Structures
1.
Amino acid sequence: MPSDLPGAPAGTPFVEARGLHKSFGDNHVLRGVDLEIAAGSVHALIGPSGSGKTTVLRSLNGLESPEAGTLRIGDLELDLARPRTRAERAALHRASAMVFQQHQLFPHLSVLGNVTIGPLRVQRRPRDEVMADALALLERVGLREKADAFPSSLSGGQQQRVGIVRALALQPSMLLFDEPTSSLDPELVGEVLAVMTELAREGWTMAVVTHELGFAREVADQVSFFADGVVVERGTPAQLFDAPQHERTQRFLQRMR
Ligand code: ADP
């Protein structure tokens, strides 16, 4: 379970990012981002498009490399200004698993093939164990009978639930969600949010970039509001949604109503 992780005693944040800076060419997209995520908690990252939320999320998994800042995830501590060793890259990658905006399933592999390819090929875990785990996870999200189906025969909501199972099958310490429902038809959003809500209740540590403010309010323990590459304001959902302190947050929330 996530709360049993070494290096994450109760009360200590599982993730501590400090002073993240990242540029794409001349575009300075992260301008000193701080983020803390307690073990077993859900942290929602909200804010206007282009404010740097996805770049922060991808940085937690090593998919982006900020030029400056420090990052601690569990026992792993990185000074982002210096190159990572191969062992550090592997550890960072293992620490979390990402659920993408578009599910990014392989079209030529079955559902089961998609879920097991990472554990089998990258993690080189025993086949019997990987298959049994994958089928149990599919069962949990109501897709056991789709194990042999191809992604194109599934609805968008089912595909995204497979995307979540694929992340869980990697046995990460935390889950990262990058706007997991934004490409779905409105009637399919609920089934994906329901799975995420269940994972949150089970005690998973989760970082969620989302425009679903209702979900953030109901499920998140903490919310960070991003604008122009910094966290302008953070707090509990009640603090942030009911009593936002900053004018930028107030304007954003008014627009989203
Ligand atoms: P958000 O998730 O808040 O919408 P992003 O982190 O996706 O914001 O993007 C922040 C800024 O960084 C945007 O201006 C975006 O165009 C830019 N950006 C993100 N990824 C890349 C990339 N791989 N190459 C160039 N620019 C990028």
2.
Amino acid sequence: MTRVYNFAAGPAAIPEWVLKKAQAEMLDYHGSGMSVMEMSHRSAEFKEIIDNAKASLRRLMNIPEDYDILFLQGGGSTQFFMVALNLLQNGADIIDTGQWTKKAIKEQKKIGYVHVAASSKEDNYTYIPKIKQEDLDPKTDYVYICENNTIFGTKYKQLPPHDGKLLVADLSSCICSEPVDVTKYDLIFAGAQKNMGPAGVTIVILKKELLDRADQDKLPSMLSYKVHAEKDSMFNTPPTWGIYMVGLTCQWLEEVIGGLENMEKINQRKAKKLYDYIDNSKLYTNNVNKEDRSLMNVPFVTGDDELDKKFVAEAKKAGIANIKGHRSVGGMRASIYNAVTEEAVDYLIDFMKKFEKENA
Ligand code: PMP
């Protein structure tokens, strides 16, 4: 068996510890005689799985008791409009940092008034716009951000001002990569398929007091946070396998990594090595404003499309998978999520050095 060095943007690498534990429990989960995938979501075994996953995530992220944790379906793309259906009364202020906010703007406009408070579009989304309170529309209910832009490799290091407004954040590509102060947010969502497990489950963390904002008579049940919260994410059949894998990933973060402070240190070391090498190289460039660089997604180019193609092809032969940049921007992108080891990053840098030498 050969496992590749996987730099995929999502679905992405999963810690080997998690995969092996899932493998060991695959045919007979804890003496139940069946796999988690074959189990009723109403069973005592599954109740323990979902309760443990929630409790572990609560401990890891230090989520206060006045916040609910939901495990939903429909990906980040459903959250683009579900937040508006549940929270928007007068309007939304959205900061545009590329693809994932562009889509949120488009969807939320179908539901209500949207004010784009700032955008880094004119510079091809290479930075995070710094906004002031005055840039916000006084009448909106919330400020919406994508905290880490997976495609452009940008990351908020400081949250935007939002006095008198809620803060809603898409943490799909940075959740659990570092500690965050959950109390600074009103709603966080994240698809699991980058840092938390397989595709198919979306984590939503929201203040309980927000559950009563929407008119429940007008909201389809599946799109109501309140309905899911009241049913403990079991209003309908939840994505059982995904929730189990999120639970194992949380267990790995707690017991093997030792918490999010440690995870952050490892991630910072990985990212620093890669950015330092790129910045000192004569071949590769990363165009993102240094202070806005992502810890998780590192796009880079050679400046020559043909050479980029050659890089991707040769990298593949060397066991480096999914290094091609997003189709909308081209070039390369190394997604160095939690499960991507320091060894993998070192291997990538060695390959980049060799390629640079050969193509100087
Ligand atoms: N938000 C971010 C930051 C993303 O990177 C993605 C997907 N890559 C999405 C939202 C959309 O998620 P999904 O494909 O799960 O709908």
3.
Amino acid sequence: APISAWPGDLAILKSEIPRQEGFELSIVIPTFNERENIVPLIERLRAALVGIAWEVIFVDDDSSDKTVDVVRSLSLTDRRIRGIRRIHRRGLAGACLEGILSTSAPIVAVMDADLQHDETRLVAMLAMMRSNRTDLVVATRYGGEGSSSEGFTGVRQVGSQMAIRIARRLLRIETSDPMSGFFMVKRALIDELAPKLSQQGFKILLDIIASSPVPLKIGEISYVFRPRIHGESKLDALVVFEYLGLLVAKWSGDIISSRMLLFGLVGLSGVVVHLTILRLLLLGGLEFPVSQAAAMLAAVVSNYTFNNALTYRDRRRRGVRFLTGLMLFSAFCSIGVLAGTGVSSLFYSREPQWWLAGLAGAVIGAGWNYITSSMITWRR
Ligand code: GDD
Ligand code: MN
């Protein structure tokens, strides 16, 4: 169709274009430092996908091990292989999205580069997509013959299952593995949803399902999650936090902002500041009430600064208002400090445990802090 739309004097080129088949299936593979895995992965894809018109698109976030160079050297002799190099960007979801939007194949699969996903299941997934009874096929570790115990440590397994349970509860998502990084989908669906999808973190599948205006027809194929041999996992605390943030936001219908989450986190950081300073001052030989009051004040200033920059950044107090805000905040908090010091000193006199007493004081301070901050210091 695009060829017939060319201006007349270019129409001659039409006959010079050799007839070639398009790709039915495009496999999009996000990579970040996966150099060692590329060649074995391509070999496995070639073996698994005989008879299928497939291509593979690697989307690399400028890996320091030059993963994309390996991809490019392979693509010189096999035009089914393509590499996209992104710079100054990080994000599994965004990389997948970019790969999906760069292909014309009607069906796309997303899969990890590290050989943890069983590429032989692609054939069954494609058959299910071809049957046209599904918009999306999830390769699951938690249904049928699937399993995750080989590829995950005990902690990751428990964490993964908890994340899934929360997702299904909160968002009523009807798939056994909404956290899967291995799935197949109609490209047209992603074209439609793309503007709504988040670029951050690992939660692309969950995001696709949760963002679709109509319930999707979801199929499942089980597989055994393999252990990683080369390289290491990129799932870290930030990825987990982003996941929780998405769940809370979607669950509340995007009403509960991340403000509460942030306030809690800032509060926790304040506890760390508080306890650290308290411990140091006590070790330095200061009296307990003095140490406690100083530690609380330090936590107050630190909390004010972080809350102003993060939690209430949309109502941020600058210049003189920053200072008056700090005065307001500390004024309210000094009442909290008094109460907190009282409570923790009482605690300490009965049970001389620095951390228990300090914690009791911090909890009193934090509660007071929250109420006065939201209602007075950063009121709209
Ligand atoms: N381009 C790009 N950018 N790729 C990335 C990034 C990034 O910031 N972070 C990770 N990747 C790539 C990795 O190179 C790998 O190919 C794939 O994404 C998965 O990353 P891993 O770091 O191996 O993830 P995992 O094995 O810990 O997590 C698996 O299980 C999760 C659910 O428990 C993956 O399948 C996840 O997709 C899945 O959510
Ligand atoms: Mn992995």
4.
Amino acid sequence: NAVIGSVRTVVGWLPERWLPGGSPDPLIGRHGEVGRQLGHLDGPLKVTGAARFAAEVPLEQLCHAALVHSPVARGRIATLDTRAAEAAPGVVLVLTHRTMPRLEPVPLISITNMTAVGNSALPILQDPEIRYNGQVVALVLAETPQQADFAASLIDISYDEAPARTRFEAAKPQARTPASILVERNEEAVGDAEAALRQSAFQVDAIYTTPGHNHAAIEPHAVTAAWTGDRLVLHDATQAIAPTAAALAKLFDIRREDVRVLSPFVGGGFGAKGFWDHHVLAVAAARLVRRPVRLVLSREAVFRMVGGRSPTEQRVALAAEAGGRFTALIHTGYSVMPPYGACPEQYTLGSRALYRAQNVRFGQKHLDLDVVPNTYMRAPGEAVGSFALESAVDELAHQMSMDPIELRLRNDPEVHPLSGIPFSQRALAEAYRQGAEAFGWAARNATPRTRREGEWLLGMGCATGSFPYVRMPAGAVRIRLTRDGRASVACSAQDMGMGTATVQSQHAADRLGLPLAAVSFEMGDSDLPPAPMAGGSGQTVSIVAAVAAAATKLTGELLRLAGNASPLAGLRAGEVRLQEGGLVSLADPARRDSFDAILSRAGREDITVTESAAAPLEMFKYAMQSQSANFCDLRVSAVTGEIRITRLLGVFDVGTILNPRTAASQLRGGMIMGLGMALSEEVLFDERSGRIMNAGLADYHIPAHLDIPEIDVRWTGIPDPRSPLGARGIGEIAITGVAAAIANAVFNATGTRLRDLPLTLDKLL
Ligand code: MOS
């Protein structure tokens, strides 16, 4: 925190032009391939089945792993009998805490340390202690997955149970107040919000709850690990290729260059495709048996040992004077974060940037429960925080008989409300204007329970979503340019399905002044220059910045090679641009030299540069925040309480859109995840045993096609002048605000205010 504060102060003093990226990216508004509708370049590989995922790589001598999970939440293993399992057909190895190699703990995920990737600081099969229900207590390797599963069922374990902390309510008196939530200070206060709340003419003061949410990517976590001597190749489904390679090298005490992590395709990753126990288990087992090992988590295992979002209990209090200006905003609450976890589920973070209020108070408390550590899940914090905040805004608007959009815009801040730093770009009002018009907001009747069709009560609602801009500091890319005017751009980027190679190819084509067909983007391999993890919606801009830096370096090297015989002789890198297969003078476009001519004169076939991006100082100089306006049209059965969504519409103020098709798809997917959060997703946790009761998709309900309505996705398209290419990231924002828009529409339809997710029909009867 202190570090962030000082960086902000120092950077705030720097003149604009001294900042890397201080002057806007020259490619903003000047691009050609960027912004063009283009299908996924690897789409044909996927739809024909040619793409090989981590669990599909064919290897000789492969053996398959199965896991055993603890059925108790706390205690220690008392007796352990593996003889029957070892004697079962096809069994190659049974690994328990007795036979597992001794390993250092995994370094935890951290925003500021890109080589740390672990979700949990707990030891992995290092001792007989049980720390949560679902913890892995044994691994079985066999010739087939079926043999491994069967043998795992034969392991006989008894436990000495100890009292476990598994009750949310009971843990509150011992709640911890962390100093920070990610990179922000946790507790913030301006003025006396409680006093302002008591004195204001209008106020809402309510508790909102959200249940645990579990990761449910279509592809469960999977690794295939193969050692050759002291060299390791890991086929992985990961959002963090380079950090995983670095962590494995450290844990298994081998050189970084002797680890290769390959992850060309990932079947969905929403924060959980990082580094989990299964990496360590599979790699250790493969080393012991000197055979390749495949470990695919069952759907149940994803619930037991990967987990997801913490449950939250949030208080939001809002007060306003008659004109609508907020006099108080309080957002506090409880979530679970065991001390061995890394994700603070920062649900108050969005509230700090969204509204101007005279008096504010923010703060989060953590409960230490003996549970699978909660983890990052699409818009950690904002996804559930926006449900509470934006429900409360709607409640206040109703109380004041004011249009909820109007109330929001009257409190739209000009600068970041806490830091006072200027926003780089912010057009929430424009998003609402576009959204209200396209949606037909004017048709809404503000009085609840007034529109009806037969048994169906009709309602409309809206809510704001938000997510910060993140550009990650580490990372490099390599560009190889050949004489025939082709470029290959490479780094260890990740693609969880959003189209990384597609948009980066579009960008590289524009940046290098080449047609799309002349550019290739290599990724998914830790032997390539290291990319930061795909997280925080920051991968795209992080790589764009590195490509831009490499392109600048390439320009300099080409000029140097061009020499005195070139029409560009005497010009410096800042005086030319890469365009149409060569370098062109900015001042005099008639002065140009093609890549072919430059490399031919120099007697070269190709030129290669590798470069990293400058530090993301723009994040400190400006408040960089994306926002969205969400609208929902729905009906509720007056007979059964069943909610049916008719339409969703989202307008996103997220900077430049790199590819309308892949972006719309990603934004629509995020809104669907928000719909699931609103209506059905809920981890059912038995507080007596600490056991998740619905560990599987049969009982943990994500939206199916029939639950999903027409979803209209739009954007303001206004570039952010402070970010590479004017883009600000779209991976996470779309889940935010959706649940509140739905809950607000339910109120409009029924007159019943639901403050507890999911919005199931029993709560409406
Ligand atoms: Mo995200 S929750 O940073 O994948």
